Amino acid sequence: MTADRLHGVRGVARIGLGLAALGRPGYIDLGRDRDLPDRSAEGLRRRSHAVLDAAWDAGVRYFDAARSYGRAEEFLGGWLAARPAAAGAVVGSKWGYTYTGGWRVDAEVHEVKDHGTAVYDRQVAETRALLGDRLDLYLVHSVTPDSPALTDRALHERLARLAAEGVTVGLSTSGPRQADAVRAALAVEVDGRPLFGAVQATYNVLEPSAGDALAQAGAAGWAVVVKEAMANGRLAVPDGPLAPLAGRTGLAPDTLALAWVLARPWVTVVLSGAVTTGQLASNLAAAGGERVPADGADLAGLAESADGYWRHRASLPWT
């Protein structure tokens, strides 16, 4: 099974569920103390399964995890095994970061990045052990223009072998030079054929700098998955940058943030990072026919410089 079914999806299916905030006790997201009072492994397993159930029943079909998201792959794999009706789910995960948080919110280091072949060999085996043949997309996690993932031929050969098994290989990006990383990845070939077929990137009202490169990837046939559409919660809070438009329209800030992203025709799927079923319902309203109104054009004025946005993100605490 490949990621081909992501192309041409409509409505709620254009919203996926990301498990970054559900698979581990600490994450960079506002409001977690209120939303997740029980951070035990069993508590997060139960919450993950409840949100996964609600997402599937509402029409969500793409589910996203990573090796560094604590036990997210384990939670997702267990849910898939217990829910045979979810045979049509499209499952993505990522490798390249190792979770080092020790199930602590106050860990000094939560994850360590390494895009070397040894880490790939270890982590693809770990992912397969938890997700088996349900893996559809496998992305190099958080690629920047200087990442060896863009130049390491031995790694490319390994990824090409995985692609030959039917898994779509791709990359996620982060940092102020996301566009450069995407364009570099578009040029990577193995035996004269493009290697990558999917990208997951940060794109939102505050940080739209990768838009042109992501449109180029979409035109090349890639699946384009948008993460952090709510800027780690900055765009979802009642007094945040979208509050004036929310007040004028009656739409929730998170709905507006996701709808703004979904208005881009090159976006295949945008991820919800919901950790409650109520948040999920509000997120999914972005695909229910609501659109950012005409006076939402002034949202373009909210964009920050890419460097400034990523400096601010780096200052946010893990909570």
UniProtKB/TrEMBL annotation:
State the PANTHER family in the record: D-THREO-ALDOSE 1-DEHYDROGENASE, NADP-DEPENDENT OXIDOREDUCTASE DOMAIN-CONTAINING PROTEIN
In its UniProt entry, the species of origin is given as Streptantibioticus silvisoli
Q: Which domain of life is it from?
A: Bacteria
Q: Which residues form a coiled coil?
A: none
Q: Where is the NADP-dependent oxidoreductase domain?
A: 48-287
Which Pfam family would be a valid example here? Aldo_ket_red
- Where does the record locate the signal sequence feature? none
Question: What is the official name of this protein in its record?
Answer: Aldo/keto reductase
